[in-house]
Design brief:
The complex is a heterodimer of chains A (230) and B (128). With 230 residues, chain A is mostly helical. Chain A is built from 10 helices and no strands. Chain A starts with 6 loop residues before the first helix and ends in a 13-residue tail after the last helix. Chain B is mainly alpha-helical and 128 residues long. Chain B is built from 4 helices and no strands. The N and C termini of chain B lie far apart (57 Å). Classes of the chains: A mainly alpha (230), B mainly alpha (128). Chains A and B meet through helix 2, helix 3, helix 4, helix 7 and helix 8 of A and helix 1, helix 2, helix 3 and helix 4 of B. Chain B: Its main location: nucleus.
């Protein structure tokens, strides 16, 4: 698969030109402007949002990976550029190893990792990422880049609490919690599917079963008032 | 713990879709696009079924709602709602707690970085 045609890899190449989102300790102060300038093409409101999300998720997998099954991890995507390209790029799930492309992708990915992270973790990530298939790499990219919109979350929180004073850290934290919750749901749904020996896209019945199991495990906050209709 | 919607009108920060939004009306499909990518990233098909995405969105909204209500209960004892309340609620869930502390520390670093960057720009401006 040619790099220029694969939108995910094109996105990776974009990032390659402007090394992104590492937190302060880095040399990346100057490189943040090219990143922001480049992000402006993605659409007005999302400039800083995407920047923030990019930065957070860089360290994400190093901590999250141990708790996730091996098949899922993705770097981040700008959601605006990905919409059209997700279905197109990902429909072919060939599992061939394309070492050259992967290594280039790996180099791109690694240059993003901040050096303030644990070097042993970085080495581990490096080893893992270098062995990803294309399919795995695209999934990993989706995993890293996807995020719930902070503006939508803030709106939701305001409507729930009735208070206007929702701080930015609160929005960020709730977005992070919600994303991890989605992860738990989807992974458990996949487990349910393997138990039932079914395949294909996840269906609502799997999600419901996964949700029920999560409730039994106590990972879902219980309502003090019973909800009548579900 | 339901607050009357009368006092809360729309904020300018809210997206352009609805100028005046009561707090009880909830649009469906608010998180649909993001959720599709997210579900793919976590292990679903490349094109998750729309009903699945809708269901996951409902579950997530309910989860956030319950979480926020509980946080409000805790926060009301202290006065106002703060991030600490959310962190307290997920204290038992180690992966989530670690992730949240990481997010918060990175946000701090970013803030510092931006501040330093702006200061540099000001210096350049004054030099010129």
């Amino acid at each position: 698969m040619k790099q220029s045609k694969d939108p995910f890899e094109a996105a990776l190449e974009e990032q390659e030109e402007s090394p992104p989102d590492s937190p302060v300790g880095e040399d990346e102060l100057t490189s943040q402007t090219p990143n922001e300038a480049q992000n402006q093409t993605d659409g007005g409101q999302n400039i800083l949002v995407d920047d923030d999300d990019d930065d957070y998720d860089d360290l994400g997998p190093t901590i999250k990976n141990p708790s996730h099954p091996s098949s899922s991890s993705t770097p981040k995507l700008h959601s605006t550029s990905v919409n059209a390209s997700v279905s197109a790029a990902v429909t072919n799930k060939n599992k061939e190893y394309d070492d050259d492309e992967e290594e280039e992708n790996v180099d791109v990915e690694l240059s993003k990792f901040p050096s303030s992270a644990d070097p042993t973790k970085m080495a581990k990530m490096q080893a893992i990422l270098s062995q990803f298939t294309e399919d795995q790499m695209s999934r990993y990219e989706s995993f890293r880049r996807s995020a719930l919109q902070k503006s939508n979350m803030r709106r939701l929180l305001v409507s729930i609490t009735g208070s206007q004073k929702i701080s930015l850290p609160m929005t960020i934290v709730v977005c992070g919690i919600a994303k991890m919750f989605v992860g738990e749901l989807v992974e458990k749904a996949r487990m349910v599917m393997t138990e039932r020996k079914e395949s294909g896209p996840i269906r609502p019945c799997h999600i419901r079963e996964a949700y029920r199991r999560l409730k039994l495990e106590g990972k879902v906050p219980k309502r003090s008032v019973q909800r009548l209709f579900r | 713990m339901s607050n009357p919607s009368a006092g809360t009108s729309s904020k300018a920060k809210v997206g352009s879709s609805q100028p005046s939004e009561t707090s009880f009306k909830r649009k469906r499909g608010v998180f649909q696009k993001d959720l599709q990518h997210m579900m793919y990233g976590f292990g679903d098909d490349a094109n998750p079924l729309p009903e699945t995405v809708t269901l996951v969105e409902d579950i997530v909204v309910e989860y956030v709602t319950d979480l926020a209500h509980k946080a409000q209960d805790i926060g009301s004892k202290r006065g106002k709602l703060s991030v600490e309340d959310f962190l307290y609620l997920i204290r038992k869930d180690m992966p989530k707690l670690n992730r949240c502390t990481e997010l918060l520390s990175m946000q701090e670093e970013l803030k510092q970085a931006r501040k330093a960057f702006e200061v540099d720009e000001e210096k350049l401006a004054t030099l010129e």
